[in-house]
Design brief:
This protein is an alpha/beta fold. The protein has seven helices and nine strands; from the N terminus they run E-H-H-E-E-H-H-E-H-E-E-E-H-E-E-H. The protein has a seven-stranded mixed sheet with strand order 1-9-8-7-4-5-6, sandwiched between helices. It has a two-stranded antiparallel ribbon with strand order 2-3.
Length: about 210
């Protein structure tokens, strides 16, 4: 794996060989078109992690790699007692990271008002150490919401991780974080999107409703 290797936009678009990106190519998870991201931004490229994670051996391997990078960044084994991911995108990779860290796994969901919550009897203990795991980070909004929820519930959030960081390393989560691949990919607001200006229809491939 890349250990957080940075991939430039040109490399990403031109399919330069890379261990993480090769997995996306082989599983058909690298898409080109006109996409609305969970963040609300638009992009001509999309990484559909669900297709990658639909292969259990790959999901297990990515989870081990991400857990290893978290341990290296946060100070060794036992970095977290609980791993928490936002549904739906973070569920599989979060579970695999929790397995590798020998931690509990919980997930958050949005209520009717769109607020991130813990449901299904899930809760964290006061001072329980936690990490937050996502599949892809673009602006980091969902991850920050989960971190805020956990802190307000009494947990100590030590860090965060994702398979892909689309922000070029710029997303500020307020905690230490790692990613298996960091990408510089063009993304635009709907008002500035050149694909919208061309009249191309937009797709919403992520898990959150548009």
């Amino acid at each position: 794996m890349t250990g957080g290797r940075r991939l430039c936009a040109a490399c990403y678009s031109d399919f330069v060989p890379d261990a993480v990106m090769q997995v996306f190519l082989e599983t058909g998870a690298y898409l080109k078109g006109h996409f609305r991201l969970t963040s609300g931004l638009h992009s001509s490229e999309y990484l559909q992690c669900a297709l990658v994670l639909s292969h259990p051996p790959i999901a297990e391997r990515l989870g081990r790699e991400l857990a290893r990078d978290l341990e290296e960044r946060l100070g060794g084994a036992g970095v977290a007692e609980v791993v928490v991911s936002p549904a739906i995108g973070g569920l599989i990779i979060g579970h695999e990271v929790a397995r590798a860290l020998r931690a509990r796994f919980l997930f958050t969901e949005r209520d009717a008002s769109g607020k991130m919550t813990l449901r299904r009897g899930f809760s964290v203990r006061p001072d329980e150490t936690a990490v937050v795991i996502e599949d892809v980070v673009t602006t980091g909004g969902s991850t920050r919401e989960v971190i805020e929820l956990l802190v307000n519930s009494g947990a100590k959030v030590k860090g965060a991780g994702s398979i892909i960081d689309r922000s070029g390393g710029r997303a500020d989560l307020g905690v230490a974080r790692v990613a298996l691949a960091t990408l510089e990919v063009a993304a635009w607001s709907p008002e500035e999107c050149p694909l919208c200006k061309q009249g191309l229809p937009v797709e919403k491939p992520g898990s959150r409703r548009a």
